[in-house]
Amino acid sequence: MKYVVGVDLGGTKINAGVVDEYGNILKKSSAPTSKTGNRTEILDKIETLIKELNSEYNIDGIGIGSPGFIDSEKGEVLTVSGNVVGWSGTKIKYELEKRFDFPVQVENDANAAAICEGWLGSAKNFNSFVMITLGTGLGGGIILEKKLIRGSHFQGTELGHAILYPNGVKCSCGQNGCVERYVSGTAVEYFYYEKSGKKLTGKEIFSSYYDDIYAKEVIDKFAMDLGYFLVSIKNILDPEAIVIGGGVILSKDIWWSNMIEHYHSFVNDDPGIEILPAKYLNDSGIIGAAKAILNKINI
Ligand SMILES: [Zn+2]
């Protein structure tokens, strides 16, 4: 039996876990993400977590899921817009292979979530599917014929930065009107504040759907915009399934049927694409990153 460590690097937390060949997480550990902009601090924290986990299990490799455009061949962060300060340009694979004797594989975080869902989750019976992760932003991963699509320059499948409304809200990526400015936890907070003048968290807004007219308007628009976006995905890729995960999925009972209705009313001809919630939420990054390195060392 092989054991690997999967690391999920997020804007606020680094989560790591020992994962076996079947995808079971045997032990987890976490640390807050350094906000100083010093990438060595983040690498040091990852090193500490891996050492802690390796002391109990003899591991065979390390998989890392990181935000940003990731050159997965070199294991480098090309650019990252947003929440991990100072992380652009980090040679993750090089730095960690200097510190450990294990092979290291680095993937974009939404790709790691897609790998997890395709391996063990809602998409395990599909060869071709699109993964959408809805959290602070909107992440995307695409698996076609069981192959993860990364793009010719490792900048592909950034679904959150497809443009939904030309000349729309400014995005951290430099464009205007990106999908994630309309369909994400941050977007819900932004539009709720615009309407009500009140700053609430996404969670608070979703939970006040039935009592607060502004919350209802914002979430109904969110569901409609997501419905529009699903139509584009259908027309570009015609996958077998679209799997939607990320923290926002916890409130899906409020908006899911609305989103599906919008999709069916906007689409030209639905070929029967399955639209499904993800099976894994918090652990998908760890499991997907682990699978990325398991695929390498099992060859
Ligand atoms: Zn953007």
Automatic annotation (TrEMBL):
Q: Which PROSITE patterns match?
A: ROK
Which InterPro entries does this one have?
Answer: ATPase_NBD, ROK, ROK_cs
Superkingdom of origin: Bacteria
Q: Which SUPFAM superfamilies match?
A: Actin-like ATPase domain
Instruction: Specify one Pfam family.
Output: ROK
What the record says about family reads:
Belongs to the ROK (NagC/XylR) family.
Under PANTHER family, the record lists: BIFUNCTIONAL UDP-N-ACETYLGLUCOSAMINE 2-EPIMERASE_N-ACETYLMANNOSAMINE KINASE, ROK (REPRESSOR, ORF, KINASE) FAMILY
What is the protein's given name? Answer: ROK family protein
